């Protein structure tokens, strides 16, 4: 693979404020373990309370940014580039530096709003995410259309759009999707959170029609099944139904990949289901599951963009997720790494 910046992602860059918290904090703010929500007014005091009452860790976040950092970890230098919107502030500088440290090129739109943030509340091996988008919600399609940005779109061969971006700019997502279709490039989409299928059904449906690869976890898959009236909660059945949804680019069948926590990952492709056990791990070795799904997608894409098989891509996804859950936050070891598949 000789092309630079072969994989381009877009979504919502956020500064994660992460802490191990007491379950009472979730109850106080009406939060459910493992949920991912946008902050309402009742959640606004949460960030200051976490910083005041808990030892917090600051991490360069945003799901797609985490994924691209993970992909870059296993790819040659200058393979990944990421778009999103940040503020003109110290937090944006921190995000850019952390991404650069991981080899990810960032092309941020600069907003007058503060950089977005995400409270990551860790209780045991569960994590709950509360996001205040702020500048991330201010992405402008005009940024995408600038020659310096669009030239990167034209150079890329694979695109990764996080579902969270559908809360921000469906037109920008569709501009990338339509380019992918017109040029027969590969578009991957992540469902991101149950509320995306629940409340952003139409823009998600528009994007799924364009998607060659759809990622999600079991909760997101069930939410999608409900939104589409599939009438099932069986993960394999949902995967098959999503794979069979109408597709604009008919030159290749859609691939659907659903993770399921500690249970096997499920894929649907060409009408066939395959399951893949995860890498076994003792609970005592799990430090933090925040970003495990992002890491899986990063590992998967690192092989997929190099033309490797789905089996190899899933194995790499499991490998990177396994590394990340043994670390604090969605962080990757500083050394460059390669992945070797063994059947």
From TrEMBL:
Q: What is its EC number?
A: 2.7.1.20
Catalyzes what?
adenosine + ATP = AMP + ADP + H(+)
Gene Ontology molecular function: adenosine kinase activity; ATP binding
Specify the pathway: Purine metabolism; AMP biosynthesis via salvage pathway; AMP from adenosine: step 1/1
Under PROSITE patterns, the record lists: PFKB_KINASES_2 (PS00584)
Q: Does the keyword Repeat apply?
A: no
What are the UniProt keywords, alphabetically?
ATP-binding, Kinase, Magnesium, Nucleotide-binding, Purine salvage, Transferase
Annotated active site residues, numbered on this chain, are 294 (proton acceptor)
**Could you give one GO CC term from the UniProt record?**
nucleus
CDD domains referenced in this protein's UniProt entry, alphabetically: adenosine_kinase (cd01168)
- InterPro entries hit by this protein: Adenokinase, Carboh/pur_kinase_PfkB_CS, PfkB_dom, Ribokinase-like
Tell me its cofactors.
Mg(2+)
Query: Its Gene Ontology biological processes?
Result: AMP salvage; purine nucleobase metabolic process; purine ribonucleoside salvage
- Function field: ATP dependent phosphorylation of adenosine and other related nucleoside analogs to monophosphate derivatives.
Q: Give the protein family.
A: Belongs to the carbohydrate kinase PfkB family.
Q: Which PANTHER family match?
A: ADENOSINE KINASE (PTHR45769)
- What name has this protein been given in UniProt? Adenosine kinase
Q: Which organism is it from?
A: Batrachochytrium dendrobatidis (strain JAM81 / FGSC 10211) (Frog chytrid fungus)
């Amino acid at each position: 693979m000789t092309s630079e910046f072969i994989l381009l992602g877009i979504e919502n860059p956020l500064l994660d404020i992460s802490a191990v918290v007491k379950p009472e904090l979730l109850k106080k703010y009406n939060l459910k373990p493992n949920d991912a929500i946008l902050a309402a007014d009742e959640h606004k005091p949460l960030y200051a309370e976490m910083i005041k009452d808990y030892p917090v860790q600051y991490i360069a976040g945003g799901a797609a940014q985490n994924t691209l950092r993970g992909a870059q970890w296993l790819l040659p230098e200058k393979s990944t580039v990421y778009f999103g919107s940040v503020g003109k502030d110290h937090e944006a500088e921190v995000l850019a530096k952390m991404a650069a440290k991981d080899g990810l090129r960032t092309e941020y739109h600069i907003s007058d709003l503060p950089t977005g943030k995400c409270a990551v509340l860790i209780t045991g091996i569960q994590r709950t995410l509360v996001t205040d988008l702020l500048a991330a919600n201010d992405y402008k399609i005009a940024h995408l259309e600038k020659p310096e940005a669009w030239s990167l779109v034209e150079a890329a061969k694979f695109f990764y759009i996080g579902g969270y971006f559908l809360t921000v700019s469906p037109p920008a997502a569709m501009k990338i999707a339509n380019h992918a279709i017109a040029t027969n490039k590969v578009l991957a989409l992540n469902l991101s959170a149950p509320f995306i299928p629940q409340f952003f059904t139409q823009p998600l449906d528009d994007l799924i029609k364009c998607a060659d690869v759809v990622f999600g976890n079991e909760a997101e898959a069930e939410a999608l099944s409900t939104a589409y009236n599939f009438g099932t909660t069986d993960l394999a059945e949902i995967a098959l139904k999503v794979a069979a949804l109408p597709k604009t680019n008919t030159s290749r069948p859609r691939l659907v990949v659903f993770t399921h926590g500690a249970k096997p990952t499920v894929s649907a492709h060409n009408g066939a289901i395959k399951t893949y056990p995860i890498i076994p791990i003792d609970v005592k070795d799990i430090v933090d599951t925040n970003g495990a799904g992002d890491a899986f997608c990063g590992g998967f894409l690192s092989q997929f963009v190099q033309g490797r098989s789905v089996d190899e891509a899933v194995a790499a996804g499991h490998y990177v997720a396994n590394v990340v859950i043994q670390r604090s936050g969605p962080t990757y070891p500083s050394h460059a790494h390669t992945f070797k598949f063994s059947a």
